[in-house]
Amino acid sequence: MRPYISRLCELLQPSQHGIGTPRGCEAAVHATRSFIAQTQGEKVLLKLNVENAFNSIRRDKVLQAAQTHLPEIYPFIWDCYCSKTSLFHGDFRLDSATGVQQGDPLSPALLVLIIHGVASEVKSDLNVWYLDDGCIGGDPQTVLSNADITRNGLSSVGLEINNSKCELLIVNNTTSQGRSETIKFFQEEFPSISIPAPNLWQLLGSPLLQDSTPLHLEQWFPTIFMPWPTCRFQQNVVAHHHRTTENATLSSFTHKYEQTKYVLYHNTSNYNQY
User: Fold this and answer.
1) pTM listed for this prediction
2) CB within 8 A of 44, min separation 6: which ones?
3) Residue 131 in contact with residue 77, Cβ under 8 Å?
4) CB-based burial of residue 251 (10 Å sphere; 0-12 exposed, 13-18 middle, 19+ buried)?
5) pLDDT tens profile 28-81
6) Could you report how far apart the first and last alpha carbons of the chain are, in Å?
7) Is the peptide bond before 222 cis (omega within 30 degrees of 0)?
8) Smallest Cα–Cα separation from 162: which of 131, 197, 136, 193?
9) In this structure, are residues 15 and 116 in contact, taking their beta carbons and an 8 Å threshold?
């Protein structure tokens, strides 16, 4: 895929950060934080979660997208997904006829090409995606209208939005009555949508408000740093938080954890973005 990354990056940006964007997760988080910080007037953020995307996407749509955007390797992709795949467990046989193979280096790119075709129709102030996780921001009417467009578009390619994992973040609302009306407005379309408190706002595992960073880290640290602080998973999580969190906030929080201060320093001192 390396020879085609730059081409896909040009096609997918600025909305899709899951393919070809260095530190794309951090880019998505910072874009969303900037939207929140600069918001004026009544604005909301709608986080969308696509249910079981890799296993549900229509293969005919995958092949169409591959033929258009990756013609050099289209014969190989066609050979992989042109027919059903038989899965066996003892004497039981199951024909796999939808989705792309998770673990295949091609799969994220193929999935993203399909989702981008839908996400590119969104016309909101903020339209950020990381693979199959989306975040739409703007005034409530525009966001809801674009959510309907996205839902219908995803349905046409075999994908569905998981309402129970979607979240509504009310960024700015002048009155309690306006807030209640906005919530009711979205619950009519997303009956099981979550509406977290501002101190629990997060995107892709990172807090969206600087003041909520200590609470967010406190929830993670008990599982991250016990009992092996040199675990590769722990290092990756710490590095991710460092890239998306101000140093001052980390310093003010880590005084509670002597071992944590050492681990943070040991695993993140080579990053100098802040």
Assistant:
1) 0.76
2) 137, 138, 139, 140, 143, 168, 169, 170, 171, 182, 186
3) no
4) exposed
5) 999 999 998 887 788 899 999 999 999 999 999 999 999 999 999 999 999 989
6) 32
7) no
8) 193
9) yes
